[in-house]
Amino acid sequence: MVVAAFVAPYLLEATARFVRVAAELPGVRIGLVTCEPVDRIPPDLRERLDAHWQVDDALDPRQLAWAVSGLSGQMGRVERLVGALEQLQVPLAQVRESLGIEGMDVGTAINVRDKSQMKETLRAAGVPCARHALVRSAGQAMAFADEVGFPLVAKPPAGAGAQSTFRLDDGDMLRGWLAAVPLGDGDPALLEEFLTGDEHTFDSVTVGGTTVWSSIADYRPPPLEVLRNPWIQWTVLLPRDIGGPRYEGIHRWGPAALEALGVTDALTHMEWFARPDGSVAVSEVAARPPGAALTSMHGYAHDFDLYRAWAELVILGRFDVPERRFASGTAYLRGMGHGRVRAVHGVDAVQQQIGHLVVEARLPQPGQPAGADYVGEGYVIVRDPDTAVVEDALHRLVDGIRVELAEA
């Protein structure tokens, strides 16, 4: 019997799904650490838990250590301490080290959380990535812009999922960003060279320091363009075939980047660019399952449950490598403007064309508020053994469905 503590500050839908599959693993006792009282946990999940501990701040290592000690008194000594959110990885590692719990160490967690240190580590190891600078003043920012040129990318050193990330095209945009962002010795920001090319992901499982499974996805268009244009309906494609010369570079540099960062046993999410000259540049790495429906998409492409596979990896230390049997893709449906969804047009026509390919969907509903992030108001996931069929379905979805937003 393995005793594990799962930290999930709030049980949003995706997080609750990870907790659920962990709690269903045979031979595992699960204690849940949340910022919510036990009566806020959905009843079907609550009955699967062996214990619960509430904290005020799930990112505070001292509170997490207190919670783990409390759970140990209820279930027996906690042997695994896990969480699916990127922001948790450093505090979880700190508590593991202080309590002697197996898992990712603090040095590795910082390498994959602090974007500036990550870039320095990768460049020192010879892994191709964007030039960068951790800036603490307007002068440092201007000096980096003079050295590298525009466009630049500005982001927080510990950002996640393109949050607070901006493209700066010229000096005026840089000065505007500087006026809005408080810089200082204790509050730096990261500036990076803007990489051109096609943007992709490299999601992989590392066991004992060896990459045993990987999956590649294509962003269309790149996330920064999606952030800059809230009306764009964008897609993510997982081609069935990820071999051949197109992806040869990342199959070399992806595992090399993980080795340089110290990753030994983890599911990681990497973003990278295929440059126009065919070379590869690693953008950044996160030691967590991928977001934006990618975890589900990988499951559909390989006909397995990646949520459960992640739980087995981090709690039981095992991963059964699946076969890639399908191509899959997601179309994200987004409206132009603000307010709430007034209407959704074109669904019936698109349903007649590609409905047989749909494996999961959440269509925007009239009256729902506009999405607060780049995912938008809804999505549709499709799959087929033929990549071209999936690509065509994604085009039909984003071209044929229109989300109308309006102020109340």
Instruction: Please identify the top-level CATH class of the largest domain.
Output: Alpha Beta
CATH superfamily of the largest domain: ATP-grasp fold, B domain
**Mean pLDDT score, rounded?**
93
CATH architecture of the largest domain: 2-Layer Sandwich
Give the count of helical stretches: 14
Record the strand order, biggest sheet: 13-12-9-10-11-14-17-16
Enumerate the spans where pLDDT stays under 50 for 5 or more consecutive residues: none
Shape: globular
The total domain count is 3
Question: Portion of residues in helices?
Answer: 25-40%
Tell me what portion of residues adopts beta-strand conformation: 25-35%
Examine the coordinates and then state which fold CATH places here, giving the name of the CATH topology of the largest domain.
D-amino Acid Aminotransferase, Chain A, domain 1
- State the distance separating the first and last CA atoms: 54 Å
Total count of strands = 18
Structural category is alpha+beta
Major beta sheet, specifics?
8 strands, antiparallel
Question: Which value, in Å, is the CA radius of gyration?
Answer: 22 Å
Protein name: ATP-grasp domain-containing protein
Keywords: ATP-binding, Ligase, Nucleotide-binding
GO molecular function: ATP binding; ligase activity; metal ion binding
Organism: Petropleomorpha daqingensis
